[in-house]
Amino acid sequence: MNFIDKFFRLSENGTSIRQEVTGGLTTFAAMAYVLAVNPLILKNAGMDFGALITATALSAALMTIVMALMTNYPLALAPGMGLNAFFAFSVCIGMKIPWQAALGLVFYGGLLFLILSLTGVRQKLVEAIPMDIKLAITCGIGIFIAFIGLKSAGIVVANPATLVTIGDFRSALPWLCILGVILTAALVVKNVRGAVIISILVITILGLLITGPDGRKVTSFQGVFSLPNSLAPSFAQLDLGYLWKNFGHAFPLVLGFLFVDLFDNMGTLIGVCNRAGLLDKSGNLPKIGQAFTADSCAAMAGAVLGTSTVTSYVESAAGVEAGARTGLSSIVVAILFLLSLFLTPVIMAIPAVATAPALIIVGIFMTQGILEIDLADFAKAVPAFVTIVTMPLTFSISEGIALGFLVYVVLQIALGKAKEIKPLAWILGLLFIAHYVFQLGHH
Q1: Is the backbone of residue 109 left (phi > 0), alpha (psi -120 to 50) or beta?
Q2: Rounded to the nearest 10 degrees, how much is the dihedral formed by the CA atoms of 49, 54, 59, 64?
Q3: Whole-model pTM above 0.90?
Q4: CA–CA distance, 148 with 193 (Å, rounded to integer)
Q5: CA proximity to 392, closest of 285, 267, 280
Q6: Quick check: 108 and 246 in contact, CB under 8 A?
Q7: In this predicted model, what pLDDT tens digit does every residue of 71-103 receive, in sequence order?
Q8: What is the SS3 assignment for 77?
Q9: Element (H, E) at 436
Q10: What is the pLDDT of residues 169-182, one digit of tens each?
């Protein structure tokens, strides 16, 4: 126990083994859906479903361990949502690029990412973002996470006339979610450890008794244990030659994977670590170089294992709210991902409506940072507001950062304050413009 305390610097970070285990369990519960959702999305590209389940769990476990050992931050990694949809629907189906070639493009995107990380360019890019926008990124992610929670519980649904509208409250799902939010909130107010986990378990158990809109029970168990599926159909199947044979057509796609991963990851790191109190007084993250290096290696490792870009997960914020402060919580997440290879039926049984309240509560926590933004100063309020609002409305962290930052740069120029823009901020602005010129934003 003493070794664990020293290695992860638990006492120094004001945490304990119990607190870190609770945080790790909470993070895993909030992101376990990736084990079901990632294979469901990527199988559209023609990939083997069983191999995808194994690749998802293995890539998440291995790269979360790497992040924990390199940074000691409470960050978990897994194949990124949005990036997997871009991979399957835009690249493989839309552009008719074979999935093996698409994995090769993901690998090259990760390699570019690594070069930017090792040269320190990425770290300087983050430092070029003003503190108000960093705070706005945290708030925007909070609303975005809450929106995902509301959507997965059926409280918010699509509408062709108004884009979104209220869901069907004749169904049990919205009510289960509201119950989960109230239960979690009450436990949080009373300082009960593991409030999120308790809520997820309660809603999952209630789901065994309640029928969903499809006529089946909300929670359905299909057994407990299963042997892992073979990784052979996807392992080391990436085609690294496709890029060089089709450079003009393929390189913009590599940039697309790079941009989305770069900005999503930047937002997640700032947002989650800000909530964990890990940013320094200047609003910078001390070990951001190591975090970026781990993340870029994750993209390459994921491509070799046979999945789209592996990246830092914003659901890590759920663990932070449950007390996670060090890499020990990430090790817990990694162990659970490895165990999930043998417990796939149990993981699949947790319904989305059980994790939805957790996402909404985490969203509430993350938006509290808006109090630190000087909204009375309109020059700061406008870019911050654009950043916050754009994330949920475009369903993309990277688009929120891109538009908010572009507004900041142009507004500074318009106000005659161009000299206050850091040199790398100009480069970042040009990168965002290139991002839109290539029109590779994910949706």
Answers
A1: alpha
A2: 130
A3: no
A4: 24
A5: 267
A6: no
A7: 899 999 999 876 787 788 778 887 788 999 999
A8: strand
A9: helix 423-437
A10: 999 999 999 999 99
